[in-house]
């Protein structure tokens, strides 16, 4: 009789545990849906999702050259050879410019993320609120340290010290963003984290609840070195047409880049696979086509840069193309993980309430096209001017002059439309 009671209690307990998991999963799904913006999305979520992937890819490219440039700068300043000193100054220049571009291009993917993944982003950001606020402070400190290193580049010891501090702050910024994004993937743990296991409300904002070293290495550290290595191959390819550039130095820089890219590329691939192995089984992501494509993208990159060791200048453009494909597939994989982590609770951004409002998307599209035209012209002119030997002035062609006039016209037109729409809305709201 006692054994029968024992087995009956075990059965009831097992049923309660299993049922509790099912109920909890339903509760998490309901929680996510309740936390979405009641106003809904102003446009189709899949459109914002695609734009988020593409803009994140551009943003992270310059994040990588910011950090990777400093790695090469620090190493170069430890060497006494003149060519290493020269390369250190070149990669410091790369880092200085890249940080600015990374900041500007980082706004767009964050905005798209906030619109369609607001329960994930805001909850995780509040869990580690102080860290998230300090992210801006640390980024500013790192940015000014890089400028300090640039202004003292003729004093290698001082410049190297500032570069070390600068890269530490950038890595800290990357750590914070990694944590906030990673914590967002575990909504089933939010209540436990917020209530400190059900004992008390934890609202300090100073805690770090989740960190994955393999994700951090594969999404930030190794790709920074690999992508910057590919950039050095392009550095060799780009400046070879200039008469005033030392071809031996450029060939050497290209080989340094190719060698660094292949070693870091292998580290990137290995850490990426190790991260995939840590993904929870119930996400169903390990065997996904997006997961396999991300791995194949890194295999492609590693293979191309490996084949470039003998002739980096010839393989510079193929390496750029392979790196672009790998980055795009990584961006898609990263986005897929958000879908996989929330789908188990019956939550989908495609079910997001839709409140179509065409004016905002049209303004965004107009701003995007204006920016593309303006940046395409500015970058083309910078590309052409950079190929001009030092001491000479690049003479723009008649077509390029017309493109410049078109760029100015488009910017003026955009300003008139943007300000005009704002004034119309203000007048309508007050009449």
Nearest-integer average pLDDT: 89
Could you give a short account of the major beta sheet? none
Broad structural category: mainly alpha
How far the N terminus sits from the C terminus, by CA atoms, comes to: 82 Å
The number of helical runs is 14
Radius of gyration: 25 Å
Tell me the fraction of residues in β-strands, as a range.
under 5%
Keywords: Membrane, Transmembrane, Transmembrane helix
Q: Can you tell me about this structure?
A:
The chain is mainly α. It folds into two domains: 36-355; 358-431. The chain has helices at residues 2-35, 45-78, 82-105, 107-116, 118-127, 129-151, 156-183, 190-194, 213-239, 247-278, 289-307, 316-343, 359-386, 398-429. Helix 2 packs antiparallel against helix 4 (107-116), helix 3 packs antiparallel against helix 6 (129-151) and helix 11 (289-307) packs antiparallel against helix 12. The protein is globular, with a radius of gyration of 25 Å.
